[in-house]
Amino acid sequence: MKILLLEDDIALNKSICDALHYSGYSVDVFYDGNDVIDAIDSMYDLYIMDINVPNISGLELLQLIQNQSKNAKIIIISSNIDIQTIKSAYNFGCIDYLKKPFHLEELRLKIDLHFSNLSENLKEIKLKPNTTLSKKERRFLMLLVENKGLVTTYANIDEAVYENKTMTLDGLRALIRRLRGKLEEDVIRNVIDEGYCIL
Asked: Is the confidence at residue 154, as pLDDT, over 70?
């Protein structure tokens, strides 16, 4: 899992990064809100952000990220215990809010809580050696995994994978052909006139 970490306290940033690396996660670290803006286009599975950071606050970044991808998962870490700030963070789309100081194990538990089922399902899907996924391929596969056993409709795919760009059925079929070619086993099922699923 790929994580973006925004924390301007150098010591805390390093502690969190080390703990996440120890748990097997890939982490890109940032100390300044402006630097995160340039990285938003990257495909991160999770954003962990402080609120009070230089140049642009975590709450502003939270809104920017949500505007770009409504499926983004964001955990706010902050010493700010003002209830209005906490409410704003949840209203803007964060999935959790950790009040500083917190134990690093609590952060790992929060991540496991939100990603355990997804991680287990992803382990069952094997890519061919030396294969990488494009942003759209990864989004599509993650969407299917999150809804394993259910039909992911064309409307769901349009919103989550293509977002503000126009989805065509020909383009979607080409995307799925490329993705199937990268999988060790074809687990993607076509549900006629409805969408796709993984059983």
From this structure: yes
What's domain 2-122's architecture?
3-Layer(aba) Sandwich (3.40)
Kindly report whether the global pTM for this prediction surpasses the value 0.70. Answer: no
HEC assignment per residue over the chain: CEEEEECCCHHHHHHHHHHHHHCCCEEEEECCHHHHHHHCCCCCCEEEEECCCCCCCHHHHHHHHHHHCCCCCEEEEECCCCHHHHHHHHHCCCCEEEECCCCHHHHHHHHHHHHHHHHHHHHCCCECCCCCCCHHHHHHHHHHHHCCCCCEEHHHHHHHHHCCCCCCHHHHHHHHHHHHHHECCCCEEEECCCEEEEC
Architecture of domain 135-198: Orthogonal Bundle (1.10)
